[in-house]
Amino acid sequence: MDLTDARWRKATRSGNDSGACVEVADNLPGRVHVRDSKDRDGGVLTFAPAAWRAFVAQTRRH
Q1: Domain DUF397, which positions (predicted)?
Q2: Is the CA virtual torsion 3, 43, 48, 54 positive or negative?
Q3: Where are the domains of the chain?
């Protein structure tokens, strides 16, 4: 998977003090990529946009 053009941004709910942050790249067609900001060379989770929207909507409810 080529993520060279991915534009990563920190999740809006991530805190500045704990370092427990998630970064999201949603600028590539057809996929949303998520990674741990403390381990940027580690694994990346990939979601279909509809699945990502459903996940985000569900987390906002809780």
Answers
A1: 6-60
A2: negative
A3: 9-13+20-61
pTM value is 0.82
Report the pLDDT averaged over residues 6-19.
76
* CB-CB contact of 32 with 46 (8 Å): yes
- What H or E segment, with its residue span, contains residue 55? helix 49-61
pLDDT score of 28: 95
Dihedral Cα 36, 59, 56, 33, nearest 10 deg: 20
Give residue 15's pLDDT: 66
Phi, psi of 51 (to 5 degrees): -65, -40
- Is the backbone of residue 58 left (phi > 0), alpha (psi -120 to 50) or beta? alpha
